[in-house]
Amino acid sequence: MRNEFYISFEVQQEQIDYAKKLVEYSLKHHPVSNIWDKKKKDKTEILRITGTLGEIVFADAYSLPRPYRSFGAIDGQDFGQDFQLKTKSGTLNIDVKTMHRKGNIFYKNYVLNIPARNINRDDSKTDYYYCISLHNIRTKTIASILGYVAKKEIIDGKIGILYKEGTKRIRADESFFTFYEDTYEVFFEDISRPFLTKKIQNYLGFKKMYLK
Fold it and tell me: How far apart are CA 130 and CA 148, in angstroms?
């Protein structure tokens, strides 16, 4: 199992407010539609806030420049390169994938969903996908950084399972959902553990956690 641990901490209200500001701009000025806008129009703003907040949390955690535009703004398209993270092994082109869940107790067979179109598009700059989960506890928002997966490993079939559009899947609570497009599922146990810094360890509510 690659995911030796994941990290959790409290999101600041200022980060949430900033995310809402970026999404408000994108919806008002330059709405670029995507699959979620077509299928879940009533949830478009919520989904965009989730994704944008994940990017802000990631940027702040690793001392990177925050995004200045949200998805949907014509001047906010990044072709799958949200961030460039410099490490000892080189520079990683990161696409942050954020989902909102009910909690942050995760199991090895939980999955990260990545649309196949993101992986297969010719103009994609992505090298790695970084997985972040958000959930609410009363008035607080908690972020969990699960870690990253290499796009090449998905393409090569080393990790991930491809499900075609229209496939019905069962959640852990036995409820159903249907994929609106071809989608890869990557097990949490196949996600490489996140980078842990002293800055993150000093965050309010910081916890080092493990998959069940």
Answer: 4
Who's near 192: CB < 8 A, 6+ residues apart? 2, 3, 147, 148, 149
135 three-state secondary structure:
strand
Q: Is the pLDDT of residue 29 over 80?
A: no
Contact 130, 145 (CB under 8 A): yes
The enclosing H or E element of 117 equals helix 116-120
Strands, sheet with 90-100, edge to edge from the N-terminal-most edge strand: 83-87, 90-100, 128-137, 140-150, 6-10, 207-209
Residue 39 predicted with pLDDT over 90: no
Dump pLDDT digits (tens) for 44-94: 778 889 999 999 999 999 999 998 877 643 444 455 678 887 777 788 899
Please, what is the Cα angle at 159 between 195 and 116, to 5 degrees? 100
